[in-house]
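[job 0412] stage=complex_fold ligand=D-MYO-inositol-1-phosphate status=START
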Amino acid sequence: MDHTQTPVPDAALTRELVALAETLARAAGRLVHDGRPERVAVAATKSSPIDVVTAMDLASEALLRSMLAEHRPDDGILGEEEGYVPGTSGLTWVLDPIDGTVNYLYGIPAYAVSVAVVAGEPDPERWTAVAGCVFSVADGRTYTAGRGTGAYLDGRELHINAAPDLATSLLGTGFGYVTQRRRAQARIVAEVLPQVRDIRRIGSAALDLCTLASGGLDLYYERGLNPWDLAAGALVAQEAGAVVTGLDGRRASADMTVAGPAATVGQLVAELERLGAGSDE
Ligand code: IPD
Ligand code: CA
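[job 0412] stage=complex_fold status=DONE, emitting structure tokens
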């Protein structure tokens, strides 16, 4: 597939894709909810011994893939657990079967199924996000967004908070699983914390971005997000009025994702650039 030729879906197809993203995320969310044992076991580890996978991460992604095979057989799929299978349509589904797996493991009710569909290369710096749904499994909240069609929580249209000063902004962030990155992140957060109202580490990037969209956070930044962590949540935040960006004029990516109202994002980006937050040194 030559991604430079990929057409972006029109409003009618976008709405269909939002509806399908919601159907998928809610179905996988029900599986995750109903299948949660009293004590969740770790099935495997990934980038480090604390980067865990549970049986339910695997089952959730398998369900999402089987539903897509039925409904959208020509689209590609990029999922956290099973990787990338290219399609022929120019659209790719980007799946996080459980975002917030550590919360799921401990029974902390902040984990979600994140389903997005993007046009073009499945790379956050190149794609056009078309539709997405983040289903918050523990409380059943359903965040949806379509490109140009708005962001919604359980059908209610979302708008981010009006921009407060950086000093009165409630800031969300998160940390990676690898020691060297965490050392660097700890250095940055120590500099940022005294400059804001307070910091929240919710433990699910998808929910961080949706919480920002619904006014529960004023700002968010994180280094190290994977495409599936941010695909749906970034679209929800953007459609609710947020700027979602990277550092040094780049788009949001694994290197850095910053989200919030334009004015305070500008201030935070400048501060993160000054601190060298785009590297692990
Ligand atoms: C993680 C969560 C977390 C963020 C990490 C992600 P996972 O995803 O979104 O909030 O800080 O960067 O990897 O491992 O729970 O799917
Ligand atoms: Ca994730």
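Residues 11-34 form the longest helix (24 residues).
[job 0412] exit 0
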